[in-house]
């Protein structure tokens, strides 16, 4: 299996504050990986660095063999929380924007996903509930054809019915060889999706661990394992 | 389907599919749903379904036909054997527990047949 993502010797600071330290990580393609950590542990920062949104002062990021920021951006689909759009923007306008900006964006794929999720193109952004907005974000993100998808808190604040729909759309539209990194506060909501888990603690990344290893070696669920790691009960 | 958190999901899916085969929701020789369909139905990653199927293929319960998909074996003896295995596994812990209570085989047999009679009464 080839590495879809390789992070080497990454260090990241905001001013004098260390956000991420000594990060090394290699991900195989085809997996769904959970990125877990406390609020402000650096999950969002790490995703933005991988996606080429934030610059990397120290370290090397390789996505699908590419190390240049421009090429990395083309190879990664990071969910945008749509804060850059106006409340009066219609869904159709946002879709056209995506289509214009991303070469790998497929309107047909978007429409398939949007139909499945029940999205109405004529609605304005301001008129969307949190759940519907979450569905729009997932449809836009998955409608790009990339090898790496980064879903930063895609279920945050979303009701359980919409959550299930969003999870189904991830299962349905994930290509076998594409990789998804997903973060969420509520581990349980995404637990059944995950092949492997990465935990960020104290600005550092703990080793990638397969979910099955957590279950068979520690006899724990993901959430319990994660809590024990945070409490220092598992070294 | 609700999963037990601390048991690998592919094993739980394997149990679930085996139960479906034994109860003939999927009958002998029938084509199984695609990996993606099962993944959606079970709300899990395709890799996890793939892994459960791989074990079942190794055990001969499922046969892969290249380009056609996965099929339940046509061999009834394999499914019967699978059922026996589950029956044995189910009784194992009960038998061990009763043995610890120093019950002999005769007592265990009698108590089980009483148990079944009580169950029947409740259903009447």
From TrEMBL, chain B:
Domain of life (superkingdom): Bacteria
InterPro entries tied to this protein: Tscrpt_reg_HTH_GntR, WH-like_DNA-bd_sf, WH_DNA-bd_sf
Ranges where the HTH gntR-type domain occurs: 7-75
GO molecular function: DNA binding; DNA-binding transcription factor activity
Keywords per UniProt: DNA-binding, Transcription, Transcription regulation
Record protein name field: GntR family transcriptional regulator
Organism from which the protein derives: Companilactobacillus paralimentarius DSM 13238 = JCM 10415
Taxonomic path: Bacteria, Bacillati, Bacillota, Bacilli, Lactobacillales
């Amino acid at each position: 299996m080839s590495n879809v993502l390789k992070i080497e010797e990454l260090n990241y600071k905001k001013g004098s504050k260390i956000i991420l330290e000594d990060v090394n990580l290699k991900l195989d393609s085809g997996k769904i990986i959970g990125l877990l950590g406390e609020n402000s542990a650096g999950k969002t920062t790490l995703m933005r660095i991988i996606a080429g949104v934030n610059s990397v002062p120290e370290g090397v990021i390789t996505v699908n063999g590419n190390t240049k920021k421009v090429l990395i951006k083309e190879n990664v689909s990071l969910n945008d929380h749509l804060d850059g759009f106006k409340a009066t923007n219609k869904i159709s306008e946002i879709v056209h924007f995506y289509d214009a900006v991303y070469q790998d964006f497929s309107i047909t794929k978007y429409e398939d996903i949007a139909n499945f999720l029940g999205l109405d193109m004529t609605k304005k952004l301001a008129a969307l509930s949190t759940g519907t907005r979450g569905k729009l974000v997932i449809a836009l993100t998955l409608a790009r054809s990339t090898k790496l998808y980064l879903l930063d808190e895609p279920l945050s604040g979303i009701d359980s019915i919409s959550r299930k729909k969003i999870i189904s759309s991830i299962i349905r539209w994930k290509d076998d060889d594409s990789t998804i990194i997903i973060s969420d506060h509520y581990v349980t909501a995404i637990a059944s999706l995950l092949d492997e888990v990465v935990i960020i603690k104290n600005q550092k990344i703990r080793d990638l661990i397969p979910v099955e290893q957590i279950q068979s070696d520690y006899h724990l669920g993901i959430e319990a394992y994660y809590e024990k790691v945070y409490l220092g009960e598992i070294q | 389907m609700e999963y037990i958190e601390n048991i690998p999901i592919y094993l739980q899916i394997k149990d679930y599919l085996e139960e479906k085969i034994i109860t003939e929701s999927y009958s002998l020789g029938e084509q199984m749903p695609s990996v993606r369909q099962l993944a959606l139905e079970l709300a899990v990653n395709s890799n996890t379904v793939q892994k459960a199927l791989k074990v079942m293929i190794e055990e001969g319960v499922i046969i892969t036909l290249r380009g056609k998909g996965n099929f339940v074996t046509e061999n009834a003896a394999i499914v019967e054997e699978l059922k026996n295995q589950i029956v044995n596994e189910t009784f194992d812990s009960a038998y061990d527990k009763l043995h610890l209570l120093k019950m002999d085989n005769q007592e265990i047999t009698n108590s089980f047949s009483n148990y079944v009679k009580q169950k029947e009464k409740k259903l009447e």
